Amino acid sequence: MKAVYIAQHGGPEALTYGDRPEPEVEPEEVMLKVGGSALNHTDLNLREGSSYNGHLPRILGLDISGEIVNISPNADTTLKVGDRVLLDNRHKCNLCDYCKQGQDQYCINQKRYGVDLDGGHAEYITAAASNAYKIPENMSFAEAAALPIAAHTAWHCLITQGQIQPWDDVLIQAAGSGVGSMGIQIAKMLGARVITTAGSDWKLEKAKQLGADEAINYKETPNLSKKIKELTNGKGVDLVFDVVGADVWEENLLSLKQGGRLVITGVTSGARTNMNLSILQGRPLTLMGSGGRSRRTFADMMKMVNQGSLRGIVDRTFPLEAVPEAHKVMESREFFGKLVIAN
Questions:
Q1: What dihedral do alpha carbons 47, 49, 182, 175 form, nearest 10°?
Q2: What is the pTM of this model?
Q3: Which stretch of DSSP H or E encloses residue 64?
Q4: Are 168 and 236 in contact (CB under 8 A)?
Q5: What is the mean pLDDT of residues 19-31?
Q6: Which of 83, 111, 155, 267 is the most buried (most CB within 10 A)?
Q7: Which whole-number Å values give the CA distances from 88 to 28, 161, 242, in the listed order?
């Protein structure tokens, strides 16, 4: 089958479009004819080798949708050949103590499609049947591929970790990112007031079309926290959702109200920062990492997808052989939502 894989690390030229063995369906698995596979920042790290020293060659593509073409005879599933599905990216072992206790988000043996296992930049993929979820009939494979990681991450961070409430003021950093754009949808679905940021006016306009109440160009607003205070009558926001990291860390903290919460899930601008502890002194802030995500929250998120309340946000699509071009666009950051490889 045709696939895009890396046999060595490097720039976009390290991405090879060629033939790889077609996977075989193992027990408890389904086979998908891939319809779409979205890019993530993780793909750039994998390609460069900055966050991966595992087995090569590896087929990339963490976000995957497609049509079921084969099912293992012993798979415990109601899915059928011909069903249109997307995949939960994280495969859990069902054997460790965490899985047995219903805390699979902490599974010590979990593996990710497109990282530890071959991914979706291919004509076919096999995956655990329990990781496949049906999608609406009117949803394209490209849109479905834009959902799994971005929507599940935003859902987990805002609802499970951040305990978002309808009356909250919420600051969502990086509106144009896949996770940020999904965060806007989820926060507005729950009734919160959303303040978001981006570095381009056209991205700010897109964010407003998604429902953002206030959109701030961070390149033109060096003192973000001051602007946030102005927009919240001097109080600050109840919740900050950050996918950026070091560059905005202190401004995030200064933007929070007394008793505010911050959830961080991305460090694209850097993972290390000097922390001014005086910001915390006397201010009961709650700072949280994203951590793992559970099957239960993925299933909850998929209920809203199938009700039509959450939609995948696709900036543009590329053919399988153009994955290197898609990587260059991702590096440029000149996109809003997700870049998708459509088969």
A1: -100
A2: 0.95
A3: strand 63-71
A4: no
A5: 97
A6: 155
A7: 15, 19, 22
